[in-house]
Amino acid sequence: MRAQHEQEFSEYADARWPVLVRAAVVLGCSLEEAQDLAQTTLLRCLRAWTRVRAADDRDAYVYTVLLNAHRDSHRRRWRGERPTAEVPDSHVADRSAEVDLTDAVHRALADLSADHRAVVVLRHLAGLDERRTAEVLGVAPGTVKSRLSRAMDRLSASTHLADLAPREQS
């Protein structure tokens, strides 16, 4: 039975890894922090796999763990310089447009409150419905609707994203 549980968890973790990393990035983590957060989330879920697999919605349970781990990491995270042993290669392709886009999206998302970012991640990235999102966040479905509406209004009015909108040609 234990081997079956391990196999089931392994398959689940492999399938959910990329989405968990993306969700963590949208929550404001760097790629490395997002990978650490996804790993922490899956480790916690492995330890509680019996509860996770018995949940009505495994993904909702896992996203709850992800959000809690994210909150925990922000409580004690140092936000200073991060030295590295390797100097980046100076002969890299020009990715400035991609970097600008990523930066604009990150800045726009950073302007949102943590609650609004969480709703955007759960609804649009994780694809949870309003009821599941409300369960994960521990709020009423109406709160999810209002937070999402406010978040989308702020994103659409964001000056960080203004240059990304298609321009009308005269």
Provide structural commentary.
The chain is mainly alpha-helical and 170 residues long. The protein has 8 helices and no strands. The chain has helices at 2-26, 31-47, 49-54, 58-76, 96-110, 114-125, 130-137, 141-157. Helix 6 (114-125) crosses helix 8 and helix 7 (130-137) packs across helix 8 (141-157). The mean pLDDT is 86.
Distance N terminus to C terminus?
Answer: 68 Å
- Using DSSP, what is the number of strands? 0
Proportion of residues in helical segments: over 70%
Spans with pLDDT under 50 lasting ≥5 residues? none
Indicate the overall shape. globular
Radius of gyration of CA atoms, rounded to a whole number: 18 Å
Mean pLDDT: 86
Q: Which structural class matches the secondary elements?
A: mainly alpha
H-E string:
HHHHHHHH
Q: Count the helices. How many?
A: 8
Largest sheet: none
Strand content is under 5%
Compact description:
With 170 residues, this protein is mostly helical. The protein has helices at 2-26, 31-47, 49-54, 58-76, 96-110, 114-125, 130-137, 141-157. The chain is built from 8 helices and no strands.
Task: Please outline the helices and strands.
Elements: H1 2-26, H2 31-47, H3 49-54, H4 58-76, H5 96-110, H6 114-125, H7 130-137, H8 141-157
Helix pairs in contact: 1-2, 1-6, 2-4, 4-7, 6-8, 7-8
List key phrases describing it.
mainly alpha, 170 residues, 70% helix
